[in-house]
Amino acid sequence: MNEKLFNPWHDVSHDFNGTDITGIIEIPKGTRAKYELDKRSGMLKLDRVLFASMYYPANYGFIPRTFCEDNDPLDILILSQVDVVPLCLVKAKVIGVMQMLDQGEADDKIIAVSAGDPSVNHINDISELPPHFISELRAFFEDYKKLEDKSVVVEEFGGREAAVRIIEESFVLYDDTFVGNKR
């Protein structure tokens, strides 16, 4: 029997319109569980529990049909007043990007707000976020792997235009890598 499995990375549309995009949540905000998409099966797996006593500051996931230099889909942080369950599709408004190096490798994080959450959907650019929240994001990502003896460096935060450029580049790399090729 030759049965094709559904894979959220490859089989869900990102529906990007230049502002809004579909993100798929892997990790709800407020948890220490590091869930990750198993790229082959499309299932969600528990990669590890964070070694540090820290909690994800935002809902964390990926943008479908994207690919980056770290051989993963493009990461997205979706701000919302609620913790979003894993594998939930979330329409989100892109507001910026956090550019970082994980173990010396580029690992950008798109920052967005949930389009369906009236507590944040009025935000249009990362510059509208409280400075302390940006400091919290930086601190979390620079510190959450220290007890694993791994290095993460947050280089800079960019606005919506920088985020859109990175998203579009990830679409091109996805198409170059997967479209027309057997997965």
From TrEMBL:
Subcellular location: Cytoplasm
Enzyme class, UniProt record, top EC level: hydrolase
A GO BP entry: phosphate-containing compound metabolic process
PROSITE patterns: PPASE (PS00387)
Catalytic activity reported: diphosphate + H2O = 2 phosphate + H(+)
Entry's EC annotation: 3.6.1.1
Origin superkingdom: Bacteria
MF (Gene Ontology): inorganic diphosphate phosphatase activity; magnesium ion binding
CDD domains: pyrophosphatase (cd00412)
Sites where the protein binds Mg(2+) 1: 70, 75, 107
Cofactor(s) needed by this chain: Mg(2+)
Cellular component terms per the entry's GO annotation: cytoplasm
Positions of substrate binding: 34, 48, 60, 144
Keywords: Cytoplasm, Hydrolase, Magnesium, Metal-binding
Classification via Pfam families: Pyrophosphatase
Binding site for Mg(2+) 2: 75
Description of how the protein assembles with itself and partners: Homohexamer.
Function comment: Catalyzes the hydrolysis of inorganic pyrophosphate (PPi) forming two phosphate ions.
UniProt family annotation: Belongs to the PPase family.
HAMAP family in the cross-refs: Inorganic_PPase (MF_00209)
Name the UniProt record assigns to this protein: Inorganic pyrophosphatase
